[in-house]
Amino acid sequence: MRESGVLAGIVLMAPDIEVHAILWKRGPKRKLPRFKVFARMPVGTGDRGETSFGMAQEIERKFLVKSDGWREEADEGTRIEQFYLFVAENRTCRVRIKDGETARLTVKTGTGIARGEYEIDIPTSDAEALRVARIGAAIEKTRYRVPLGKLTVEVDVFSGALEKLVLAEIEIPTVDHEVVLPDYLGREVMGDPAYTNARMALDGRPHGDTSS
Hints:
The protein is mostly beta strands. It is built from 3 helices and 13 strands. It has a single domain, classed as Beta Barrel (Hypothetical Protein Pfu-838710-001). It has helices at 6-13, 124-129, 197-203; strands spanning 2-3, 21-23, 25-26, 36-38, 56-65, 78-88, 91-98, 102-109, 114-122, 135-148, 151-158, 166-171, 185-188. It has an 8-stranded antiparallel barrel. InterPro entries: CYTH-like_dom_sf, CYTH_domain, NeuTTM/CthTTM-like.
């Protein structure tokens, strides 16, 4: 029986991270994956935008989008479907499929503007197989990239149950990096957990959202 080592590799490379890793096994008589959850240890943050074991640090701000002013400079967009295998207050494990052709598994730790992030590409067949372990709903959206000086705004136009919701994220090099915000951005929602993709997968549209 062959055992996939994708998530096992995360634990081996990062033994100090608090993460619930998932292994799946396949054999000639087993068409669906089998899952096992294990490993939990604290995570620390280093001095160079990385966690203590080398996990990259993602620093970003998130906003509601109040107009279509971004469309003029946007690229043609990428269709994204993503679902979650594990969600807790300060850590998530996500599978994302882009344009139905490529897939990536991501573990994130922490909350707020700066979070630890570990990503690894996986076969789309493995991503499809992992659907049976999904919690909550799948998130469907199209992501557009819009230049903003030396930075990039990623505008997510949601579909399905979150239709008409539009959010934008700006990844910045440091927490205190100043950004001149374009007019099409509205209220910042980075500190509101209701607007995280993981929480929307579990709870649906944020309470009080008027974009529907």
